[in-house]
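Researcher: Can you fold this with adenosine-5'-triphosphate in place?
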Amino acid sequence: MEYLLDTNGLTKQYGRHKAVNAVNIHIRQGDIYGLIGRNGAGKTTILKMISGLAAPSEGEFSLFGKTGKEAYQYMSRVGTLIEAPGVYPNMSAAENLKLKCLAMGVRKKGVAEELLNTVGLQNAGKKKVKNFSLGMKQRLGIALALVGDPDLVILDEPINGLDPQGIAEVRETLSKLNKEKNITFIISSHILEELSKIATNYGIIHDGVLLQEMTRDELLAKCSERIELKTNDTRKACTVLEGMGIEHYKVVDASTIQVFERLNDSGDITMALAENGVKTMGITVKNETLEDYYLNLTGGTENV
Ligand code: ATP
């Protein structure tokens, strides 16, 4: 089994509108997969389909190597927090967890207490959930998704509306569970910067379409500081760069080279290229932030 979960042409159509359009995502065991997209991009709809809460209009997904009906049999190994968690507001966190354990047939003693500890709610005591802060509610939602020791946990916007400390706490909890229990996570968010601190892989979704999938390293490389050099002869240009002692560069396409060192020496590079008969068609220093990159990809700041 190459992927713990992958989708093949996954599509959801509401009337004439394709909320999710032929999406192929690939998630390996141990990934923390960040699904990024603006409001309305289709994230929740994807998560609902792969959790068995909505049926695809077209396409399919495979879970633990199984597709179709067989995949649904593995749903007990998937924990979800999609939209508001189904909690009983007049009960405490521990009571809510015990109820979920009961509903899922988890009989082991002390599970509720252990999960409260895991998500940092051990001091919530008898406080009713209706009096919880948003951060506490989100953490309880995560704890509820963890009942039954799932291998895969799907969290829809778990950091939405949290203050920076709440975000940091959720991040820490998820990292710990990923490392210590090898739980694979899929987390959606509309804030790339926040997910970038935790996700190992990304899927960028826009208007129902998956624009790109990449690893953390690939994303960071795209956003790293660099000189972008356009030239008519990349082969010869590489020889010139190496002659200048530049080793950290990458040929991106037939006319573009990215140079990741000596960022202040673009003048010297242009001169050396000219001396060797290589024409420079353009040379710029790029320093895109993650958010710049994301906005460029999805076309502007509207609705972000
Ligand atoms: P948000 O973060 O705002 O929830 P999202 O990326 O999760 O955004 P979805 O909730 O998946 O986006 O919605 C994608 C599109 O599908 C939106 O245009 C939404 O209006 C539409 N949509 C979602 N559910 C339904 C439904 N049950 N009936 C009709 N349209 C729907």
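Model: Folded with adenosine-5'-triphosphate in place. The first strand starts at residue 5 and ends at 14.
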